[in-house]
Amino acid sequence: MEDQKRLGELFEEHRSHLQAVAYRMLGSLSEADDAVQESWFRLSRSGTSHIENIGGWLTTVVSRICLDMLRSRKSRREEPWEAFLPNQNINQGEESDPEYEALLADSVGLALLVVLGNLNPAERISFVLHDIFDLPFQEIAPIVGRSQDATRQLASRARRRVQGVNSVTHPDITRQRELVDAFLAASRAGNFEALLSVLDPNVVLWDDREVAIDGTVKELRGAQAVAKQVAGRAQAARPVLVNGTVGVVVAPNGRLLFVLDFTVKNSQITEIELVSDPSRLRQLDLSVLSE
Fold first, then answer.
1. pLDDT tens, position by position, 5-22
2. Environment class of 157 (CB within 10 Å of its CB; exposed 0-12, middle 13-18, buried 19+)
3. Quick check: helix, strand or coil at residue 209?
4. 252 secondary structure, DSSP code
5. How far apart (Å, rounded) are the C-alpha atoms in residues 190 and 227?
6. What is 173-287's CATH number, 3.40.1390.30, 3.30.360.10, 3.10.450.50, 2.40.50.100?
7. Is this prediction's pTM over 0.70?
C-alpha cells in the first residue's frame, strides 16, 4: 500500500507536465485527461524498479497514447476540429469551466491549436515534443516509429506548415495584417464607421452556411450590409495565414468553426468568403502568424 501511495505521489509531481503535453497534441481537455489517466494505469502496473527517469518515461508513454488516439481519430474520419472544444476540467468529476478552458486555449494559442489540427499524427507528435518541449530527436524517434533523420524531417515539415515559411510570398503581407486587425477590432467593438473605412463600398460576403434554393452560396453585397452583419462579432476570431494571405479563424476555445478568407485591393477589403464546410476547411493551408 505504501509503495502504491509513493507511486501516486511521484505521478502527481508530473501530472501538470503530462497534461500540457497531451493537450497540445490532442487539443482537447477531456482527451488529454484520458491520455494522462491511461499513463497512470500503465505506471501503476509497471512500477518504477526498471525506470531510471520517471518523467521521461511518462512523457514517452503519454506521447504514444496520444499518437494512438490521433491515429484512431483519423481512421474513424473524425473532423480534427471536433477535438478542439475542451469539455472537461483537468480533475475528473468537476464541472466544465468555460473561463478556465478559454484561458488554457489562449495560453496555448488558438491559432496554433487550429493549425496543429492540419498536421498528420506523426508530424504533430514530432513538432510538439521537439519544438515545444525540447525533447531530442533520439527520444522522439522510437515514439513515432521512425529513424532520427525521418523524425527530424517530420518536425521540420510541421514547423514550415505552422510558421507558414513556404506560404508568406505576398509582397504586402504587413498591410494585409493591419487591415485585417482593423477589421477585427472594429467588428468586436461594433464600430460601424470603422468597419466602413476598411470595407470597399462594393464588398461582397459569401457564407457557405447560407445556401440558396438552387444550391448556390448566398451573397451579401455592399459595405453597409456587410458592416451590419459583422458588427459586434469576431470575439473568438484570430488572424492567421490562409493560403499565404492574411485571413481569420473563428475558434471559440480552440474549436474551429469557420475561416474568413479576404481579398484586398487598394487598401480595402473587397471580398470576404466564409468557409465552414469541413471538406473545404481541410483543403485550406493554415499557418500561424507571428506577432
1. 888 888 999 999 999 899
2. middle
3. strand
4. G
5. 9
6. 3.10.450.50
7. no
